[in-house]
């Protein structure tokens, strides 16, 4: 398995021609490495430290909203609420913009972000793109369809275009510190990373990336959009299910709440205290094991490789079944049970790290992993300090949860919790 992640490391997807499709996850070869290297500093410890007040501010807004639910005695739609708090954090940290997504019930921003998530893996369009990734562009030419919905694409391109036009000249000479600005500054720099990439010459699109010249406008848009997607999909999937698992397992909820109080001692969380919550981390890990936001990882051979005596030719595509690995009896005893004790340092040390892949692995692992972890911790710390969480009537009170496998990871019925102010 390590070989798959390290040597066979190109993405199997094809970047399209529309701006938002130049996301890192779809790029290959030297274009991918130059974009990844440019974006990496946005995820450094220093940058994450700077982000913490913004994350806490969004969590505080969420607490206020939940206090209203508690006062009215209404049950909370937990996924929707966690989507809103994470998108709030993401848009502020990435673009320095407040789209008011937590308060605005009719938010257009949320409506369009939802449209992205609502694709069905069994639709002919998605099946075709999955089976013949290298033919994406032919498919689009023939049908006019992109994997991204055109109307939604236009909405986000317009927002990003507006931001771009305002920032590119920076007439006010304001020192923006967000992700978007970092990418803009990189675009203005001379590209020093123009080496020829022979690894992807096999591409049957006939379009090699030899002419790539560092960061371009469509790369900035693609990466900015990746932030939106992470704020809408992967992050909230993990976050709302962790909240739900804590509501379901009240003894763990109490233990984590006590840990938070002893570490924070009444203070607002900062980078150091958020990093020091081992029981909370165990609960998040166990939720990510049970419900990995990305159920399958894909890799394509960039050169012939021998794996367990089988020769894989260049261009072979691999799927790594994350969900099945996480639920295998071979690695986890009683895998359907929520047992955060599996993640104590002693238990963790007994296990192969490659049996736990919520953020992928290798050179193409999730670049936003630490941002995602700090976002989740900030929200969970705020919620547990202010509320006792229980499962609302009508929502499942035991595991396993029924999962809808058609699109991205979601439960068949929406999950609701009750919040009681402490
Ligand atoms: C809890 C939150 C998150 C989860 C569970 C998650 C999960 C993942 C996974 C499983 C992958 C594929 C890794 C692989 O193939 O080995 C990935 C890739 C990626 N993620 Fe995340 N992610 C999260 C948050 C974020 C955030 C906040 C960002 C910020 C922009 C982000 C940006 C990316 C990017 C750019 C890639 C592609 C990396 C590449 O191809 O080099 N993710 N993520």
UniProtKB/TrEMBL annotation:
Coiled coil: none annotated. Keywords: Heme, Iron, Metal-binding, Monooxygenase, Oxidoreductase. InterPro entries: Cyt_P450 (IPR001128), Cyt_P450_CS (IPR017972), Cyt_P450_E_grp-I (IPR002401), Cyt_P450_sf (IPR036396), Cytochrome_P450_3A (IPR050705). Pfam families: p450. SUPFAM superfamilies: Cytochrome P450. This is Cytochrome P450. Heme binds at residue 366. Its cofactor is heme. Cytochromes P450 are a group of heme-thiolate monooxygenases. They oxidize a variety of structurally unrelated compounds, including steroids, fatty acids, and xenobiotics. One of its GO terms (molecular function) is oxidoreductase activity, acting on paired donors, with incorporation or reduction of molecular oxygen. It comes from Mesorhabditis belari. Belongs to the cytochrome P450 family.
């Amino acid at each position: 398995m390590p070989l798959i992640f390290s040597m066979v490391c190109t993405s199997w997807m094809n970047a399209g021609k529309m701006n938002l499709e130049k996301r890192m996850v779809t790029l290959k070869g030297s274009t991918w490495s130059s974009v990844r290297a440019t974006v990496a500093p946005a995820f450094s410890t220093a940058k994450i430290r700077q982000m913490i007040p913004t994350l806490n501010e969004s969590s505080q807004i969420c607490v206020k909203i939940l206090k209203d639910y508690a006062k009215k005695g209404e049950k909370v739609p937990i996924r929707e609420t966690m989507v809103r708090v994470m998108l709030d954090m993401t848009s502020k940290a990435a673009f320095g913009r407040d789209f008011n997504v937590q308060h605005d019930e009719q938010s257009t921003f949320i409506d369009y972000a939802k449209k992205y998530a609502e694709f069905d893996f069994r639709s002919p369009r998605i099946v075709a793109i999955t089976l013949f990734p290298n033919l994406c562009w032919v498919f689009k030419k023939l049908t006019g369809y992109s994997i991204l919905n055109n109307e939604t694409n236009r909405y986000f391109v317009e927002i990003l275009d507006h931001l771009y036009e305002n920032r590119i000249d920076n007439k006010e000479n304001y020192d923006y510190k967000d992700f978007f600005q970092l990418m803009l500054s990189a675009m203005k720099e001379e590209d020093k990373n123009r080496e020829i990439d022979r690894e992807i010459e096999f591409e049957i699109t006939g379009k090699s990336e030899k002419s790539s010249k560092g960061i371009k406008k469509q790369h900035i848009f693609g990466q900015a959009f990746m932030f939106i997607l992470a704020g809408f999909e992967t992050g909230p999937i993990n976050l709302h299910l962790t909240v739900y698992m804590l509501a379901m397992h009240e003894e763990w909820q109490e233990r984590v709440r006590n840990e938070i109080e002893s570490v924070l001692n009444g203070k607002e969380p900062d980078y150091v205290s958020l990093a020091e919550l081992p029981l909370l981390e165990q609960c998040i890990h166990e939720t990510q094991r049970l419900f990995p936001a990305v159920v399958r990882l894909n890799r394509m051979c960039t050169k012939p490789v021998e794996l367990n005596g089988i020769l894989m030719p260049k261009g072979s595509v691999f799927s790594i079944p994350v969900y099945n690995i996480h639920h295998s009896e071979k690695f986890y005893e009683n895998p359907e049970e929520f047992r955060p004790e599996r993640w104590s340092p002693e238990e963790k040390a007994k296990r192969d790290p490659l049996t736990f892949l919520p953020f992928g692995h290798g050179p193409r692992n999730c670049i936003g992993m630490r941002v995602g972890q700090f976002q989740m911790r900030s929200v969970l710390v705020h919620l547990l300090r202010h509320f006792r969480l229980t499962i609302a009537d009508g929502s499942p009170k035991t595991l396993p949860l029924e999962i809808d496998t058609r699109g991205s990871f979601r439960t068949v019925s929406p999950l609701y919790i009750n919040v009681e102010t402490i």
